[in-house]
Amino acid sequence: MPTFNTIVIKIGSSTLTTSEGAFDISNLKRIVSETAELIKQGKKIILVSSGAIALGAEKLNLGKPKTIPQKQAAAAVGQSRLMRQYEKAFEEYQLPVAQILLTRDAIADRERYLNARHCVQTLLDEGVIPIVNENDTVSIDEIKIGDNDTLAALTASLIGADLLALLTDVDGFYMKNEEGVSYRADEITEITAEVTDAAGHPSTQLGTGGMITKIQAAKICQNAGVTMAIINGRKPGLIKALASGEKAGTLFPPLISKMESRKRWLAYGLKTEGIIMIDPGAESALIQHGKSLLPVGIKSVKGKFSSGALVSIVDENNKEIARGLVNLNSEELTKVIGQKNVGEVIHRDDLVILSKET
Predict the structure, then answer these.
(1) pLDDT in tens, 78-91
(2) What is the pLDDT of residues 290-327, one digit of tens each?
(3) Are residues 258 and 316 in the same domain?
(4) What integer pLDDT is reported at residue 203 of this predicted model?
(5) Phi/psi of residue 51, each to 5°?
(6) What is the CB neighbour count within 10 angstroms for residue 23?
(7) Percent of the chain surpassing pLDDT 70
(8) Quick one: 305 and 325 in the same domain?
(9) How far apart are CA 11 and CA 24, in angstroms?
(10) Where are the alpha helices (DSSP H) in 23-147?
(11) Are residues 285 and 184 in the same domain?
(12) Residue 55's closest CA among 65, 67, 45?
């Protein structure tokens, strides 16, 4: 197993709060201590931390916020409280921190995506620990990423990280054997229907209620060339062990080698706006020969989209195999399905191939 140099660590709410819901400063300090040790070894660390809304709600006596304004207000109060705790904890090791707040549109826009990547990279080069969170104070459905597992995976893809470690309240990802007995999987190489089903049926005993978003994060990582792991955020030494190449928790190895930056942005920076189904000949041309997508290999088009939109490309079994930026809008494309000598629908430079396991 390889060692990892650039690491994103996502710290879940359950890792930062006690069973009574109070902020667990002792566990935060322990995680910071392990992180500081890795940085002294030359590792570059980015944190994606939950906890802001919970801390804000505690300060405002809101209980569990239900409305969007309540959540935004709690996030506004809680972010400063959360950052203050991190700043105080890292000061003990003479390490500065920086806050990065993102929304989906900051990742979808190519220029803003590059600006965010350059900012994070500069912070890392200067020995600063970026602490990333979604900008919940202004987030609405249209620009919302939605959960910190996905945010962490997008951050890992954004920066081209080697490893994403998801810290949670269980020892890894649990499957069931033929007798129906749960067991922790040491490694998951493919996100199969069985894996997705296991993630979607939480076990109270094992506390796997949030596993579906972690599997979605694993899909992003595996197709961006990033290793992902789910580990227990309350057991000392696991972060250091994982970073040095030892086995810990459940590992999701990448399905492909690391993509270059623009391909990672095409794969997961944008939201898809339509679907193009292609025939086996076109599939072979794209995957085996690195060709552009032509109208002659298209079987059907779904959705309404404009020229320049990102679309999903699926095979005849509706398995997604690629994503790309189209040169035609949906109406124009529908008129030329199956035709020859019309021109490229998607140029190969605007196309990214995904694993068929997604």
Answers:
(1) 888 999 999 999 99
(2) 899 999 999 999 999 998 889 999 999 999 999 999 99
(3) no
(4) 42
(5) 110, -15
(6) 18
(7) 91
(8) yes
(9) 12
(10) 25-40, 52-60, 68-91, 104-108, 110-125
(11) no
(12) 65
Rounded CA-CA distance 16/350 in Å is 41
- Residue 99 Cα distances to 122, 132, 173, 263, 319, angstroms: 13, 6, 30, 26, 38
- Token digits of residue 307: 């020229």
Beta bridge partners of 10: 48, 166
| Interatomic CA distance for residues 345 and 280, integer angstroms | 17
Residue with tokens 């609405």: 140
**Which tokens in the block code for residue 196?**
């997705």
Q: Which two tokens stand for residue 334?
A: 């529908």
1 part of a folded domain: no
C-beta separation of 327 from 347 below 8 A: yes
Task: Mark which of 263, 296, 329 sits at the end of a domain.
Answer: 263
212, containing H or E segment: helix 211-224
Strand, coil or helix: what is 151? helix
Total residues found in the chain within this entry:
358
pLDDT value at position 146?
61
Asked, for residue 242, whether it belongs to a domain, the answer is: yes
Tell me phi and psi for residue 12, to 5 degrees.
-80, 165
Residue where a domain stops, chosen among 263, 284, 307: 263
Q: Are 32 and 86 in contact (CB under 8 A)?
A: yes
pLDDT tens digits for range 17-47? 877 777 889 999 999 999 999 999 999 999 9
User: Is there a single domain that holds both residue 249 and residue 277?
Assistant: no
Amino acid at 217: A
Three-state helix/strand/coil letters over 297-332: HEEEEECCCCCCCEEEEECCCCCEEEEEECCCCHHH
Segments of the chain scoring below 50 in pLDDT? 140-143, 202-209, 356-358
How far apart, in whole angstroms, are the C-alpha atoms of residue 253 and residue 245? 12
Scored b (16 or more CB within 10 A) or e, 197-223 reads ebbeeeeeebebebbbbbbbbbbbbbb
On whether the CB atoms of residues 65 and 74 are closer than 8 A, the answer is: yes
Regarding pTM above 0.70, the answer is yes
pLDDT of residue 259: 66
Range of the domain at 316: 272-353
User: Structurally, how many domains does the chain consist of?
Assistant: 2
